[in-house]
Structures are given as structure tokens and as C-alpha cells.
User: What shape does this take?
Amino acid sequence: MNLASDKEPAGSLDEMGVRQGGLSGFLNYWLRSWRVTFLVLIGLAIFGTWTAVTLPRESTPEVEIPVAVVVTAYPGASARDVEELVTKPIEERLTNLEGLDNLTSSSRLGISSVVVEFSANEDLKDAIRRLKEEVDSIRGLPEAAERSEVMEISISDEPIISVSLGGIEDERLLSLYADNLAKKIEEIPDVSSVDIAGSINEEVRIRIEPKRLADLGLSIGQLMSAVRTANINAPFGQLETDKYNYDLRLTGRFNGIGDVAQIPVALPDGTVAPLGTIAEVDLVLTERESQSRMSRGGEESTPAVSLSVRKKTGGNIVRIVDEVKQKIEEEKGELHSDIQVELFADRAEDIRTQLNNVYSSGVQTLLIVFGLLWLFLGWGPGLITALSVPLTFAISFLVFAQTNTTLNGISLFSLILSMGMLVDNAIVVVEGICGHQDEIATKSSEGLVLRDRDSKELKEKKIQARSAEMVDKFTKPLIGGTMTTVAAFFPMLLVTGIIGQFLKVIPIVLSATLISSLFVSLAFLPPVAVKVLGRRSEDEGQERWFDRQFDKFRNWYANIIGRILEAKRFQALFITVLAVLLVFGLSLPFSGLLHTGLFPAVDIDFMFINIEREPGTKLEETLATVERVENIIRGVPEVRSYVANIGSGISLDFGSGSSGEEVASLYVNLEDERERSSLDITNELRENFKQITDAQVTVEELTAGPPSAPPVEMRIIGDDMNELDRLSGLVMEEMDQVDGVIDIDRDLTNSAGEFNFSLDQEALTAMGLGVSDVAQTLRASVFGTEVTTFLDQSNEEVRVSMAAFDQAVNSIDDVLAMPILSMARQSTMGEATAVTLGQVAKVDLASSVDAIRHRDGKRTVTITADADKGFTPNELTLEITKKVEAMGLPDGYSVEFGGEQQETVETFNQLYRSMVIAILLILLILVIEFNSFRQTFIIFLSIPLALIGVLFGLLFFQGQLNFAAFIGLVSLTGIVVNNAILLVDRMNSMREKGATIIEAVNLAANSRLRPILLTTLTTVGGIVPLIWVDEFFRDMAVTLVTGLSFSTLLTLVLIPILYYRQQSRLERKKNQASNAVEHGKGNAVQLSPVP
Assistant: This one.
């Protein structure tokens, strides 16, 4: 839908009508040098196709997020100690970090995690560097705390496929196979890591009896030192001789459990005893932190080991997963015959399905566009016009490679969206060449009529001359029309954050394709037209049946327009009805009839389920809950297989989910061929899971687009954890009363409690003990600790740990009776004697929480919930806000709302700004083109016409005014105005040639009807197939189809009315001014026909 002016450009032409010099000269070079043009076309086709094949493929654009996490381990410390001694000092240091946007933290048993979110415009590498420098400069953390690690968070860290091995009961054998397979997979390029769940490994465990060690006069620290010293492999100098220098190395590494048992330990009495005589040294299975079970075909689940494969940033998901599958096939020959391998959460398969849907839609679009071109233009011109699609795409793919744009659902959608628009330039040029040829066929006096007796060369020369004239004629208006459309998309690059990175693909792709189509239409298609049309016979140029029927329709339309221009009351009524429709349409989102949101949920072939029990729940108890969940899942006929991982959760944001013996997660594969969608199955499972009351069971829904916050999120901020616990509980009860709120949860859970040991510093000093002595003894005896590692004969790393016998510590009294060796207190023999923990510490039982979370340094409890089908996060958040305000909060406590509703507001605000900038750019282009504010306003009114179609279209198709729909709305601002441009430009041209207002309006409407309908139909026809691709594209496609269709139909009526009324008013003023001059009743006023 581009502007095609009738103004003749100035300049000199050669003997064949080819303009020399300037932009026209450059474009016509391709027309004159057709052999060079054809070679370039072939080169573009080859390189473009090769680039398209080699571009990385993924479901959504890869997003780089400026987020990092500072992780600090403080083994054995409670959540409150971690908060006070580790988290707060780190937060205080990072508060003034340059570029900081948000600072959140989590303090839990033995670990501190501080999440640092930088501003969206920060350079990630530089931000991470500054963060590491600040973290390295932190001083004053506890000695027992480990070194803080800074880890970059990436969306790419999410697993791209999970592999589960099961089918046999021998879990150790499964673990061996899984470990071997994991190593093979890690060899694949662009695989960053492979996480293993449910694996059982062996370790050398030194079991001690604390009382016996005390009797022997040995401390646990002395024993650990003896083990570490015996397991050494290190250089200790160089030996110089007369001729050579020799490196000296001490090799004492363990080779097996026997070496550990034979470690010599020096006793206080001067004797030496092997470690095996002092403690029990065994090769045991590691204590299970996780467990995995797998089921196929509705059978009972059996033990399994699961591998989660993660890719590096920039890695090609499809290629990596294909290589993983190849590795699995290669290793199947080495597996036990009964071992079964099942794949879960296969992102590559999801990408293939999505891309295949888009490819299929693209083929349908191409067929629809070509069919319309053939119908309106005929075979020859239609084929020439359709050629612009692959040529433009070839150039666009080369741009993809230079801008690191991948082939994903969004970029492919943008290509399909552009398919209907990019032929518009070609339509104008080809129709101009063909239309002008038909026009001069009646002008025999010009001597340019194509006759059958004309030679092939003469025909081509005549068409070449006319093609050059059309290129010269259309260059300026086509550039203006293309820039108007590009102006609508370009401001999307100003959107920041994750959404901005996700969105930037659209303006890049559309700008590349539209500008490429402009070049293809002006430079490449005219030479092709010369060769194709030069071979047409006289019969091919005869009028077709469709042309005759279209002429009848055009005459009918011209008659209707003529009658409307004479009916002033109808004009006023028509404009009033449109204004009422616009006002009513704008009220739809506020009335609740048209729902709003961010991203729609999608129907996929797998789903995730998270299970969480009370903190401190043992693995066996969590497994019992998982078995109940499994029973429910096996009752769903659409379930093909599932794997349950006890000890780890799943996060649909970036990074890993929660972990611990109280959590579990399930990957569920659904049958490919099924009647119900995954969304319907999800709703059924949610209802069935309500019968499980001892755990929080949630079914996670995937949404289109980048990771987003929960649909409903509320944060309660305050100082006292007990009060935060009480308030969050009350709020959850209020939320439970709101219809549509489901899966309510909070990030605060009370643990079973904690025993706090208060050390008596005076007693410690008197007995010659330090805090580190007590901590080391207790950690090794109660918690267990890793002492060292070694490589066995199979080159596998084996862990050596030290812990007390299980029966040594069964109660708090056993802990208080734990002996601690005191060097200050000696027996009559001069040996060190032991004191008990109870002699130097007091203990009390206090309530505790699983984790303490901060936001910007303040304690925070976050409550989240999901929205049931038929409800939107926005309306639920508003209802919850009313209830919280009615409830009231104590002084010092406040509430903040976040979640999808907040993200929707922030995202839409940025899109509003993008739309405003787009409209201003379009207005600027229109004012430059027409040099008239009034006519610019007339053309601009096509945008609210499109808005009417969008709002009522979404309502009719039961869509949402969401992120995708809003992108479609922004896109429409640059598309719909071009129809009005075609009409107004033609009307101005007719007026300049002396036509009356009614003649100009009728002639313009008559002559521009075909290109307006054709360009609209090709654009709409190119988008319609996307309505059925998937949920994300649906609302965007509905927006574009309904908005463009409605705007076009009304533009064909409203623009002639407005132009006629405006020009008539100006003409009346001009006549009045002329009459005033004639009668001497006023000042002379001089107006031009076109303002």
C-alpha cells in the first residue's frame, strides 16, 4: 500500500527513456545491465538460501538479561545467622553499585544468595566485572563462610532436554550408565552442563566415635589434618646437578579405600596407629539428596536417573538436541537390555513444531498472495510480483546473519507478516508497467504499440523504456510509503528490558524486509518484467473475465461514492456513527468485556508439576506424596510418560528451581494425538490435586514470550518475621475468597525449629578453646564434612568424608554431651582432656523459617497466585487490592504489587511511548509529503478507524488485548495510512489538472480502487493463516486482519467524504473572498486549490 504519484520528475532521458545520474540512474543501471542483474539475483538466491539453512533455530529470541547472583556458603549456619552475618554485609556493600536497579536476597540454612539486577541499558560484561570487584572487596564475613561466587544468570541456563534412564531396580547400575552418558553429552559443542538427579555414587566414609577419640586424646581436627596430609601430590622444589635441573614432586595420592585405612595417625603417647584401627573406613553409597522415578504407558514408576542438558548462550538448540539423541543411540548398545530411555521437555521438538507451523502458514500465505496477484494482474505480472518475496527474503536472511538474528517463532512471524506488505511495492511497479502498456496500446500515434510483427528486441526496448519511466516515476512515492511503514515499527527498538530484547526482532526483520522489497521492486523486477512481458503475445494482453467483472464493481463503487457526496445528511450520520463506535470500542477493555494480559498460555505436548511440603520433611515422606500425585497422573489418558524428581523443583523463570528433601517435580509427556489441549488437562489436574492437603501441588503453565512474573504477585514488607508470617497468612485467606484466584503460595515457610547454642566466651578461654574448634567438631560430628577427594583406578573422583556414627547423635542431649578436646586442661599424665559442649554452651529451642528474603535490603514475604480460566491478572489484582486496603496493615508494614499485572503496565507504557513516536514520525512524513496539516489530519484518521476494527475484532474472536495484540496495533499505525495516501495523492493530482472536486474524488476513488484492494487483500491474506498457528500469534493476527480490513473499507468511504467536505469549504471561502474583492467589501484573499 504505497503512494504512487502522477507527477513527472524532472531530468534528462537517453534515447530509450532511461534517466541518467542520481538515484534514478543507479536504479536504471540494473535495467540496462540485465545480465548483471540476473547474476546478482542468482547469487542472492544461493547465499540467501545457504544463510537460511545455517541460521540457529530456537523457539523465541535469545535474551540477555543484566542479572547476576552472589552465592556465599556458610555451612551449618541458620537462616537468621546467614542473614545477619553474610547477607546484610554483602547487601550494604552492593547498595551503591553503579547501574543497580533491584537487589533481592535469600538467606537460608547454610547459604546466602543475593540477586543483583542491573538497569536494562547496562552492558552485561562490564556490570558483572564491577560486581565481582565489589564482592572481592567485602571484608568481615565469618571465617567459616566460603568465598563468595558471582554467577551470571542467563535464560539459556534452562534445560533444553531431559533424559531419564529407568526400567530396572538396580539404581547403582543406572547411575553408572547415567554418569557415563552425561560425560559423553558434555563433549558436545555448546553444551554448558549436564545436571544429574537420582544418581547414587560411592564415597569413602570415615566413621568416628567422638568419645573414643577424646579418650585417645585426639581431636577431630587432628584426624582431618592427618587424612589431608597423606593425600598429597605437589611439587616441593628443584634439584640442580652439574648438567641438569630436576623437578621434585611428592606423590602420595590415594588409589583406593585401602590407602585411606592405612593412613598413619600419631597418638599423644608417641605411638602411631593406622586410621582403620581408630575409625571405621567404609566404601558406602552417598546419602541421597534426590531421587528419580519414571513411568511409561501408564505403568507403575520404577527407579530412574535423570539428566538435564543445558546449552551455552548462542548455541543452536535444535542441533544440540539432535546430537544428544545421536549420543544416546550410540550408547544404547552399551546399556543393559532392560534399561529404558525416555526424553522429556524436548525443546527442539517444540521448536520444530512451532517452526513447522509457521513454515506451513508461510506456504499458505505465499499461495494466497500469489493467487490474489494472478486474479488481479494475470499470470505474467502476478509471477513477476510474487518473485519479490523470495528475493526479499534472501536479502533479509543475509541481514539476519549480520545482526545475529536467529530463526525463531518471532522472526518467522515477522517474515510472514511482511510477506503481504512487501509485495505492495512490487504491485505498484508491475501494475504501473503493465497498466501503462495497456494505456499506450490505444495511442497508435505514439508508435510505441506492441505488435506481433514487432521483433523481440523491439518489444523489449519499448517495455524497457516504459519500465524506466515507471521506476523514475514511482521512486520517490515508494520510498515515502515504505518509510511510513518502517516508521511504525522502528520505535519498538526503544523498548527496554527483557521485553525490549524479545521485541527488537520485529522492527529489525520488518525494516530489513520492507527496505529490501523497495530495492527489489525498483532495481530487480523491471528487468525481469522486460524479459517476461516482452514475450507476451497480443492475446495475452486482452481483457480477462475478472477484469470485466472488476470494472462493473468499480463502476458501482464510483456510483455509490457520487451519491454519498451529494447526501450531506448521510455524511454527517456516517461520521457520527464512526465516532460512537470508536468511543464504545475504547470502553471495552475498561468494561471487562475485552480482557487484557501480557502473554497467553500455550498448548504444548508436555507440562511441569511442582510439589512442596513443609521444610524439614524427609525424602521418604516427600516420596509418599509424589506417589499420590503419580496415581492421579496415571488416571489421565493423554499422559504418555512422566519422570518424578524428588529433591528438586522446576522454575519456569531463568535459572534452577528450588531444591531440598521437601520439594519434588514432575515432567509429564502428553500424547501427540489427543482431543484435549494441555490447558484443559491442566485444569483437570488442578481440581484433582486439591485432595492432597499435606503439600502444595502446582501445575506450571508455559506462556508464549520471555519469562515473566507470576500472574498475581504481592509483597509484604516489614521487620519482624513473626508479624510478616501472620500478615501473609491473613492476606492468603482473603485471596482465597476471590473468585478466579488459584494456586496461592508464599515464599515463607516455617521450619520445624532450630536449637540455638550460645557459647560462653569466658569458659572457652579458660579451657583453651576457640569458636572454630567447637564449630569444626560439631560440623564433622553432626553434619558430616568432606575431607578430601582422590581419583580411583577408573579415573573417577571419589569423595572422602568424615562423620560420627549414626547412633552417636540421636538427640539434643547427645549433642550437648559431644566431647571437645581441650589443650588447656591436661590430665595427670600431661595429656589433653575433653570437655563437653554442655560445659561451654547453653541451648534453647526457637522457631525458625526456611528462608529470609530481602528486597532492597528490607525483609519481604512474597505471595503469588495464578489466574483461573476466564480471569485476567489485572482484574484479580484490583479485587485483591480492595480486600487488603479494607484489612489494613500495622505501622511499619507495607504492600507492593508486582507480577504479570505490573509487568503488563510497564510493558504497555513502553509500547504506548513507541506508538506515540511512530505516529509523530508518520505525521512528519505526511506533512513533508503533502505540505498540508488538513490533509495530513484526513489521512491520519485511518488509524482510529483501524482501532475500531481491532477492538471489536478481538471481542468477536474472544481474544485478549495483550502484548501480541498491542504489537499488531502499533504495526497498523504505519500500514493503514497508505490507503489514504493513495487516495489523497490521486485526488490532489486530479485537482491540479483542473478537475472539479467531485470529479477529482470520483476519478481518484475509481482509479485507486484496484491497488488499494489488492494491497489490502495481499496483506490480510498473508496474515490470516497465522490466526491458527498458535496462541501467541493469534491475537496479533486478529488485530492486523480486523484492523486493516475495517480501516480499508471505511477509508474507501470516509476519505472521499472528508476530502470533499474540506475542499468544498476551502472553495467556498475562496469564492467568498473573490466576491468580496469584486464588490469592494473586504480584503483580497488568495488561496491555492490544494492547501
Remarks:
- The first strand starts at residue 67 and ends at 73.
- The chain has a mean pLDDT of 79.
- Residues 602 and 1030 are 7 Å apart (CA to CA).
- The first helix runs from residue 22 to 32.
